[in-house]
Design a protein that fits this description.
Structural class: mainly beta
CATH superfamily: Single-stranded right-handed beta-helix, Pectin lyase-like
Number of helices: 0
Number of strands: 16
Shape: globular
CATH architecture: 3 Solenoid
Strand content: over 45%
Number of domains: 1
Largest sheet: 5 strands, parallel
Strand order of the largest sheet: 1-4-7-12-15
Length: 133
């Protein structure tokens, strides 16, 4: 199954996206954003060929229209997210990086994922900003 998103998919709290079984590809345009959400599982997906997106209006997880700024073209972007498990995914050939964890995101687990083909695009595959020690 191949899914082409016209705009970034905002993932809400208490959500599991499970791609086990069929080969699920999210590819060719916009990809996944976890924005101010917690208790999220992203499992078993192949996410690739994500492109940057101009600022636009999108529907938030509560069904309200909200403005979304420029999106870089990451496969998965976490912004002020917590308790997120990213497991058994394959991420590759995205315009920016593959995984961004930003703006105070906490309790993030990234396990058993395959980050591949980085030589074709930017050298940064995974970006983690705002870490406090």
């Amino acid at each position: 199954m191949r899914i082409r998103l016209e705009k970034p998919l905002l993932i809400s709290s208490f959500t599991a996206i499970d791609g086990r079984g069929p080969s699920v590809h999210i590819a060719g345009n916009a990809c996944l954003v976890v924005f101010k959400a917690s208790n999220v599982i992203i499992h078993g997906l192949r996410i690739h060929h994500c492109c940057s997106q101009a600022p636009s209006l999108v529907m938030d997880p509560d069904g309200k229209i909200m403005p979304l700024g420029q999106v870089d073209g990451d496969a998965i972007r976490l912004v002020t997210a917590s308790k997120v498990w990213i497991d058994h995914n394959t991420l590759y050939e995205c315009q920016d990086g593959l995984l961004d964890v930003t703006r105070g995101s906490t309790d993030i687990t990234v396990s058993n994922n395959w980050f591949r083909d980085r030589s074709c695009f930017r050298a940064t595959m995974i970006a983690i900003f705002g870490i406090r020690t």
